[in-house]
Specification:
Chain A has 11 helices and 4 strands; from the N terminus they run H-H-H-H-E-E-E-H-H-H-H-E-H-H-H. With 293 residues, chain A is mainly α. A 3-stranded antiparallel β-sheet of chain C has the order 2-1-3, covered by helices on one side. Chain C has a two-stranded antiparallel sheet with strand order 4-5. Classes of the chains: A mainly alpha (293), B alpha/beta (413), C mainly alpha (354).
């Protein structure tokens, strides 16, 4: 029985990773950059939702919407100011700018919101489900997170497959030069990608803090890195890959903590990642790119 | 590519020239500072305390105390509390006539909770003309700095560096309890009062404070007839989710969960435990203080939590009430354990300096010698304990108060 | 006298900068014109310069993105510190002890470099970056869980806690899990740091300008073409990677012997540090050895010099980082810079020098 509850905890943690990883993977797929500041957008999203609920007294759905809007604008602004001028530059230069943006967001949050921990009250008002006579408890947050994750993934996949903007994104990710020649506005497409990615970050932030309620300016950093790992795990750039990678990462983390060692769970997670990559160098669902001579 | 590179080089060079210019300037300033501070006194105070206006002229010299702690980075909350509370104490002391007639000046430097940055902060403060050190806030940086301050023979009082090694040198004293001391005291308290026999521990294995307490607790438990049925460690990178550790504790049938951790993580643990209908007794140390002040925290979750702490922000005595009111008025927050330690630290410095008859024209080393003797002679009634005395090793002797959270407030047990 | 070639001249300038900087600092220190902050930060400056130069070998010369450089530094730091602490009574001469600790640290970090170099062969680009990041985190995580002690019965080792070591009463705990190592003899000083930096520069510069270095750069520029002309890719990649790791290990040993306490926190040995070193390399110019060295020095000094800004300093640091990247890399920034007089002035001066 405890195995099943560990597994459920793992899936719950994993779906948070998965939502963050979806944002990571979209941005990577289209803009071909590692947006290290993604984790910090999550943190900003959580703070906005927290402020809206606790200080402004807004109802929960409005607060979440506000947080999504703020993060979307923030993402587009970041893209415009920090990343767009470097579109043609070396990949490393963009990586460093993203790191700069990450430091910037952390420190501005520290100045605005202070260093004190804020306890995020859950946005999910659902009674936990009790199974097997109270032996197995599934919390409302777990259900909400898993459902949100699956819905978001389904929406994203539909969007990519059937909408015009989605097709444009696929085209840009395939070959941005050729896409431009075909009349696709590459800049607008990348901007849209950042908007979607950051909106997802806001949702992820709210769900992350509902399940694990301590909110500080550094809350987003480690989940951000873990989600990055999850995205690579599943094959970076692939939407179902990010989902599978996130869930697997969460489950491995919790199970290794439970059955091997709670101190070494990170080492175990990362070792599994290395093994997977050695066996399958582009992640679980990543595309194998043929090199041309 | 090559052209781009050379351009980049040129830019870096241009930048470095500018930056080097900057370096030279500050270096010169830095050089000026210690010279000025050697004759301490009025000239230096005038430039530094321009904001304080003509008040400084009525003092008989200046005593410069430096502070070090993290004000940015993940541990910023502790450093900021210490900085704020120390500033508050300094204002009060100065308003009441200063230390031995000297004006107390306090400067706080950030160390980002990093040993190397902490030593840099220490050196910056030396350049400023620091005569005594009230720091560092966190244990590992403190262990690094104490070696440096011992070389300079500078009096060193840490408000909250609780590791054994943090005050390994003869010039160093501390306000808080040492980690082993807390671990042993917790085990004794649980054992002697028969609170529980089956105990689970959840601790941060990557944190010096937490693992230090855990080790001693585990060793002492054996003597107290306490059985540790589950131990769940977590690390700094892995502290969002505690469901597995709680599940393990629940499955092992632990009646009490010992939490030698800080309140940030504890707030998550309490929430997750409530989510899984697990209601053991939670027992913590001074790191748990601050739990009730976490913004947005549902205090009903903390009902029945016991903690062994020398300070509780809603204690009813006059001193604590005044301090909490003043702190809240100045910074809009409820002070935590760290703030109380720092506030006491400033008053301890004042008491010891007056006992030793420190004057502004003494050398740093002479001050230290005087303070070292004075520290073992004084008795201080502070926020964190009544009648605190120190031994030559630098350890305070005070007794922790056991408190229990009932109806959202701390009540003594 | 035979006219020096352009590269030789450039290399001599690099060495010259280090030697002159050393002499200036020594003179300032001897004549008492140096602030305590500067005195304290000299060794860290050497450490970061060594790290930046060694990472440039991987990032700039080999052309692979590594986000785990701090992991190698961590290996060097801990093995070196353990060696020094074990032998502190046996070897009384600090210089000799440090030299041996240095060797131990370098060898261990180098071995780790070879171990991690093997998956490197199979992976490319961001996948490689994530493997190095993972490696760095694994090392940090392991080090935080190790308990290691010594008594008259020999060495004891545990992954649980210090009680599980089962030491005799007279035993000493050397690594105490997360509490790390305390009381490492502070054997390093500025002179040793500068010598190590010079050795690092000599190794890296000579490697780059050797036949081996040209082979490595050929792999960077076009792997398939390099393979087709018979360059052994496996060999050269592992070589470059492990040399880079070993040098990071040397920096680690220096780090461990600079402070009396050594713990593996996310701040000093986590991915944050790896990224920090990468920032030095990118800002100094990818592939430019001198550039990484200078950038490391400037960026280490910057937060210290910004101390007067108190809580705004890390914010300013972030803004500076973004601004420099845009300034040096964006087309508009480059155009702006070409019109900018200082850069022109410098360029003209550079031409005159050449």
């Amino acid at each position: 029985m405890s195995f099943i509850s560990y597994l459920l905890n793992g899936i719950s943690l994993g779906s948070v990773y998965a939502i963050i990883a979806l944002g990571y993977t979209m941005v990577y797929g289209i803009a071909k950059m590692l947006n290290f500041a993604h984790g910090d957008v999550i943190m900003i999203g959580s703070y906005v939702a927290y402020m809206a609920i606790n200080n402004m007294g807004l109802p929960i759905p409005v607060s979440i919407l506000l947080s999504v809007i703020v993060c979307t604008l923030l993402g587009m602004m970041m893209e415009k100011i920090a990343y767009k001028p470097l579109r043609q530059a070396s990949k490393l230069a963009v990586l460093i700018t993203a790191i700069g943006a990450s430091y910037f967001l952390q420190n501005i949050a520290l100045l605005i919101f202070g260093a004190n921990t804020k306890s995020f009250s859950s946005v999910v008002n659902m009674e936990p489900i009790q199974l097997a006579g109270g032996q197995l408890i599934i919390s409302g947050e777990t259900i909400a997170t898993v459902v949100a994750c699956i819905v978001i993934m389904a929406c994203l996949m539909t969007f990519m497959k059937y909408s015009k903007a989605g097709h444009a994104m696929l085209a840009v990710s395939e070959d941005s030069g050729a896409a431009q020649l075909m009349g696709i506005n590459v800049n607008a497409t990348i901007s849209l990608t950042f908007a979607i990615g950051s909106a997802l970050a806001a949702v992820a932030g709210v769900l992350l803090c509902s399940a694990y309620p301590a909110l500080t300016p550094y809350t987003g950093a480690m989940p951000g890195i873990k989600a990055f790992v999850a995205a690579v795990f599943g094959g970076i750039g692939s939407i179902p890959g990010a989902f599978i990678g996130g869930i697997l990462l969460g489950v491995i983390e919790i199970l290794s903590r439970a059955y091997i060692s709670s101190q070494l769970s990170d080492a175990i997670v990362f070792s599994v990642l290395i093994i997977v990559l050695v066996v399958k160098p582009t992640g679980l669902l990543g595309k194998q790119i043929q090199e041309k001579v | 590519m090559k052209k781009l590179l050379s351009l980049a080089m040129a830019a870096t060079l241009a930048f470095s020239v500018v930056a080097c210019g900057g370096t030279d300037n500050t270096q010169n300033n830095d050089n000026a500072a210690p010279e000025a501070s050697e004759d301490a006194g009025s000239t230096d105070a005038a430039s530094d305390a321009a904001t304080e206006g003509d008040v400084s002229s009525s003092y008989n010299g200046v005593l410069k105390v430096g502070g070090i702690g993290p004000t940015t980075g993940g541990a910023a909350v502790y450093g900021k509390a210490v900085m704020n509370a120390a500033n508050l104490a300094v204002e009060e002391i100065n308003a009441a006539g200063g230390v031995n007639g000297m004006e107390l000046q306090f400067q706080f430097e950030d160390d980002e909770h990093d040993a190397e940055k902490s030593v840099n902060a220490y050196n910056t403060l030396k350049d400023w003309g620091m005569q005594m050190l009230m720091g560092t806030v966190t244990s590992t940086p403190c262990t690094a700095v104490v070696n440096e301050s011992a070389k300079d023979n500078m009096f060193h009082l840490t408000p909250s560096g609780s590791a054994v090694e943090s005050i390994a040198q003869p010039n160093a004293f501390r306000v808080c309890f040492s980690d082993p001391n807390q671990g042993a005291a917790s085990a004794q308290y649980i054992g002697e009062n028969g609170i529980a026999t089956k105990v689970a521990v959840i601790y941060d294995s990557s944190d010096v404070y937490s693992s230090g307490i855990y080790e001693k607790f585990a060793a002492e438990s054996a003597n107290q007839g306490i059985e540790i049925v589950a131990q769940g460690a977590f690390t700094a990178d892995n502290k969002t989710d505690f469901s597995q550790q709680l599940q393990a504790a629940k499955d092992a049938g632990a009646e009490l969960v010992f939490l030698p951790i800080y309140y940030t993580e504890a707030s998550v643990i309490l929430k997750q435990a409530a989510g899984m209908n697990y209601e053991p007794i939670f027992f913590g140390c001074d790191g748990l203080d601050g739990l009730l002040a976490v913004e947005g925290f549902d205090t009903s979750l903390a009902e029945g939590v016991m903690l062994l702490t020398p300070f509780a922000a809603d204690a009813e005595d006059e001193k604590t009430k005044n301090f909490v009111a003043a702190y809240q008025a100045a910074y809009g927050e409820i002070p935590n354990q760290f703030a109380a330690d720092a506030y006491d630290a400033m008053y301890i410095i004042k008491a010891a300096a007056e006992q030793a008859g420190i004057t502004a024209d003494m050398s740093v080393s002479d001050m230290c010698e005087g303070m070292k003797t004075a520290m073992t002679q004084i008795t201080v009634d502070g926020l964190t304990g009544e009648g605190i005395t120190w031994d030559a090793e630098g350890e305070p002797s005070k007794s922790p108060k056991a408190v229990k959270i009932t109806d959202g407030v701390y009540t003594a047990m | 006298m035979k006219k020096l070639s352009k590269t030789t001249k450039s290399n001599l300038i690099t060495y010259g900068i280090v030697v002159v900087a050393y002499l200036v600092c020594e003179i300032l220190m001897r004549t008492g014109h140096m602030s305590s902050l500067m005195k304290g930060i000299l060794v860290p400056l050497c450490i970061y310069a060594i790290l930046a130069v060694s990472l440039n070998l991987t990032v700039g010369i080999l052309g692979e993105l590594s986000l785990g450089h701090a992991g190698f530094m961590c290996v060097g730091a801990f093995t070196g510190a353990v060696f020094s602490k074990c032998t502190v009574e046996m070897i009384a001469v600090p210089g000799l002890r440090f030299l041996l600790a240095l060797l131990v640290g370098i060898v261990c970090a180098g071995i780790c470099g070879i171990l991690i170099g093997i998956p490197v062969l199979r992976l490319r680009g961001d996948y490689l970056a994530i493997v190095t990041l993972a490696f760095g985190e694994i090392i940090k995580n392991l080090v935080n869980a190790i308990y290691f002690g010594m008594d008259k019965n020999g060495l004891h080792f545990s992954m649980k806690d210090s009680i599980a070591l089962g030491l005799e009463p007279d035993g000493v705990i050397i690594i105490k899990g997360a509490q790390g190592i305390t009381g490492t003899p502070t054997d390093s000083n500025f002179t040793i740091g500068v010598i190590l930096l010079l050795i690092t520069l000599i190794i890296v510069i000579n490697l780059v300008h050797s036949r081996t270095g040209r082979a490595i750069m050929a792999i960077r520029d076009n792997r398939i073409a390099a393979e087709s002309i018979g360059i052994n890719i496996t060999k050269y990649k592992i070589l470059a990677f492990s040399v880079s790791a070993a040098l990071a290990g040397a920096a680690g040993v220096l780090y461990a012997h600079n402070l009396s306490t050594l713990t593996a926190l996310p701040k000093n040995f986590g991915y944050n540090m790896s990224i920090m070193i990468l920032v030095f390399v990118v800002l100094g110019g990818i592939g430019s050895i001198r550039g990484s060295m200078i950038a490391a020095v400037i960026l280490t000094l910057l937060p210290e010099l910004l101390r007067a800004l108190n809580e705004y300093r890390m914010l300013i640091y972030a803004v500076v980082l973004i601004a420099i990247m845009i300034f040096t890399w964006s087309p508009k920034g480059i155009a702006l810079r070409e019109r900018y007089s200082l850069a022109k002035l410098l360029k003209r001066r550079e031409k005159e020098v050449q």
